[in-house]
Amino acid sequence: MSRPDWSNTSADYARHRQGFPDGLYDLLAQHGLLRPGIQALDLGTGTGTLARGMAARGASVLGLDPAPGQVAAATRLAAEQGLADRAHFAEGLAERTEQPEAQFDLVTAGQAWHWFDRGLAAAEARRVLKPGGALVICHFDWIPLPGNVAHATEWLIEAHSPHWRMGRGTGFYPAWATDLALAGFRDIAFAGFDHEALYSREDWRGRIRASAGIGGALDSPAVARFDAELAAMLDARFPPDPLVVPHRVFAIWGRA
């Protein structure tokens, strides 16, 4: 599966999409996966949310993404956060990173594993990891429960983008354990937690405009029509501001 190029919606993607909560970095640190001074490679980095989060905690990170617009946004955001010395970004593929063998202590993929050829990406991650290094795959998903704003939004996305098949999720990805095992990773483990994300109405609309089902699938006039309907739905059914959107953080990892 090829990953969409969100270059045209990178402003919405960077401005409105929330990154992983601090609890993820605490979790990785507790399990000995993230610590100051390590060399990390972030695959499918997008606007660098995960890469910048790790750099803020002392890691030296290279983020790779095939979309030039995403790389440019990640570079700009790292500079704005004062992280340009520890977070670097370049165009590149998860399945063929062109990085040296046994170079990194940690390889990560946040919100991206489903876009890759997973078998090739796992094998490439193992190749570039030092012995004992870890591949961590993590996701931060809204949880659509009947009556909540995520559930209502998914129905609207499906009405405008009927080929979208990424809704109704639970935030758990047990199949990824098989990806790790087949690539030769050992000591496979997983962890996660639920998190209530607060979104202003504007940020939720921007978050959804930049999603795969809308910004990644529709042309600009269609996105505008969707956004108008989403705004009307929020006004009618979810008037409180900020919106409380339940999310789930899921991380799975294995050692090389």
UniProtKB/TrEMBL annotation:
One of its GO terms (molecular function) is methyltransferase activity. Signal peptide: none annotated. Keywords: Methyltransferase, Transferase. The keyword ATP-binding does not apply. The keyword Methyltransferase applies. Its EC number is 2.1.1.-. One of its GO terms (biological process) is methylation. Residues 41-137 form the Methyltransferase type domain. Belongs to the methyltransferase superfamily. PANTHER family: METHYLTRANSF_11 DOMAIN-CONTAINING PROTEIN, METHYLTRANSFERASE TYPE 11 DOMAIN-CONTAINING PROTEIN. This is Class I SAM-dependent methyltransferase.
